[in-house]
Design goal:
Elements lengths: L1 H39 L8 E2 L1 H8 L3 H13 L3 E4 L3 E4 L4 H25 L2 H20 L2 H18 L3 H9 L2 H13 L4 H15 L3 H12 L6 H7 L6
Antiparallel strand pairs: 1-3, 2-3
């Protein structure tokens, strides 16, 4: 009987620990995703000072998961934690932008070639549906939603190749690149260029033309640098 109760107590302890771990993890992830989205979308601009206390109060969560989210964002170089002084949103580092863009360009060129040989009709339909929604965003002028659909379009390409983990790893090192892309979309409302290149990529995937699809993907990955000097000159306070 003693062993039975001991076992039951141990099981309850394990369940309690597991539930607490899941809650803690999900709360940390919630805080992390919320803050990262605000930084990428420019709701939190470079140089903005933030505190664990204010964030935990605004999100109605404890400070521990917020502190963990801060540390994770600092590892991605989106936040700068200065002991005894506070935490600020980092400025855009063009070296990190180029490194992230370089990795993404070369991986996505390989991915789009593979997509041309593996894509099926259902996956083509998913890509086309995404493009239709992008075109609706053009009519509405919604750059935030267009950015999300842009990401979903590229994610679908990775998923078609069964390379979702690769996508997640690429995304983690592209935060500064994404901030620059979002700034470009916010400053330049000529979204047609972005969507037009997506259309061309889709067309050549549909026609199973890997050489042309790869060529367009390369241009697409370099698009953000077309107006880099102008963006930096207009917003010098946002850059290192």
């Amino acid at each position: 009987m003693h062993n039975y109760h001991t076992s039951i107590n141990r099981i309850q302890e394990v369940i309690h620990i597991s539930i607490n771990f899941e809650i803690k993890g999900s709360t940390r992830d919630f805080a992390y995703n919320h803050l990262k989205e605000q930084i990428i979308n420019w709701d939190l601009k470079p140089g903005t000072k933030i505190s664990e206390k204010e964030v935990s109060q605004s999100l109605n969560v404890s400070r521990t998961p917020v502190r963990e989210a801060f540390l994770q964002l600092a590892q991605e170089e989106l936040l700068i934690i200065i002991p005894q002084r506070g935490t600020i949103v980092s400025k855009i580092d063009l070296n990190l932008v180029e490194e992230g863009r370089f990795v993404r360009e070369h991986i996505e060129k390989a991915v789009v070639r593979e997509v041309c040989t593996k894509v099926n009709d259902n996956q083509l339909f998913q890509l086309e549906t995404n493009l239709t929604m992008q075109e609706l965003c053009l009519e509405k002028g919604s750059h935030n939603r267009l950015f999300q659909l842009d990401e979903e379009f590229h994610q679908l390409l990775f998923e078609i190749c069964n390379k979702k983990r690769t996508w997640n790893n690429v995304r983690r090192m592209n935060s500064h690149f994404d901030r620059l892309r979002m700034l470009r979309l916010a400053e330049n409302h000529d979204f047609e260029v972005v969507v037009g290149q997506h259309r061309e990529i889709f067309k050549n995937i549909s026609e199973r033309n890997p050489d042309k699809a790869e060529s367009i993907m390369e241009k697409h990955m370099k698009l953000v640098f077309v107006e880099l000097k102008e963006l930096k000159a207009k917003n010098p306070e946002y850059f290192n």
